[in-house]
Amino acid sequence: MARVLIAGCGYVGSAFAEMMAAEGHEVWGMRRNPAALPPGVRHLAADLRDPASLDALPERLDHVAYTATADAFTDDAYRAAYVDGARNLLGALARQGQRPRRIAFTSSTSVYAQRNGEWVDEDSPVEPDGFGGRRMLEGERVFLDGPFPATVLRLGGIYGPGRASLVEKVAAGAAECSPGSWSNRIHRDDAAGALRHVLTSPDPADVYLCVDREPAGLCDIQRWLAARLGAPQPRVSAKAEDTRKRQRSNKRCSSARLAASGYEFRHPTFREGFEAIIRGG
Question: Most buried one in 8, 17, 116, 212, CB count within 10 A?
């Protein structure tokens, strides 16, 4: 049985915590207000922005997952969540003499700025042109250059239970899209499963792209949903075309490295993922 800490235990972290607790591991979920954590997960009230609040971490931690998210879409909020919080946690672990086997950090595909539909993988250039991607990349370096073994998971757009806005929009006949606009997604349960995979693997890589096995055009996803729901097909509008042209990033992400490492996707494409949502899962 392992002792596991999930720092910033929110949407993905809670799913991972529930998964590990169900397997019999001793799991702590850290957040400012841990009241909403899943059953079987121990509560740890702390603020990653406040080093003093991290002085009483559980002892003898085996695995740490850093799944914090920013409070707002601002540079200050991103720096606090992904850079300052990361340094504060590593400092607390070091001061307490902890020796976790590995730390996993959930980053984002926003570290890639490719915008012409290029394929990208873990070896592609990372040159983010927005503060979000830059802060994510800075957070990656904090962990990869830190005192403990670390693995970065660059997550695509996360969807799953409670995050069904696209399904609702298509069902209401309010969807519109632009051809050539690529979407890279990961179901919440696969994001949690990938965390479990890298933290329990004997020798994982430093970085994995964590997206499903099939990048898809947003129009293709909406058309599939419309057919599945019996809803009107999405509109292709000038507004949508303008949105596509303004995108900072438009790429196709490959999760070949994660698949080759032995991870088996629960929802290998958007079809299985959205089907689970439609069925209430």
Answer: 17
- Asked whether residue 242 is assigned to any structural domain, the reply reads no
Q: What's the structural domain count of the chain?
A: 1
User: Does a structural domain hold residue 239?
Assistant: no
- For position 72, which CATH number holds? 3.40.50.720
In a domain, 167, yes or no: no
pLDDT in tens, the chain (281 residues): 999 999 999 999 999 999 999 999 999 999 999 999 999 999 999 999 999 999 999 999 999 999 999 999 999 999 999 999 999 999 999 999 999 999 999 999 999 999 999 999 999 999 998 999 999 999 999 999 999 999 999 999 999 999 989 999 999 999 999 888 899 999 999 999 999 999 999 999 999 999 999 999 999 999 999 999 999 999 987 665 555 444 667 899 999 999 999 999 999 999 999 999 999 86
Range of the domain at 50: 3-162+185-212+252-266
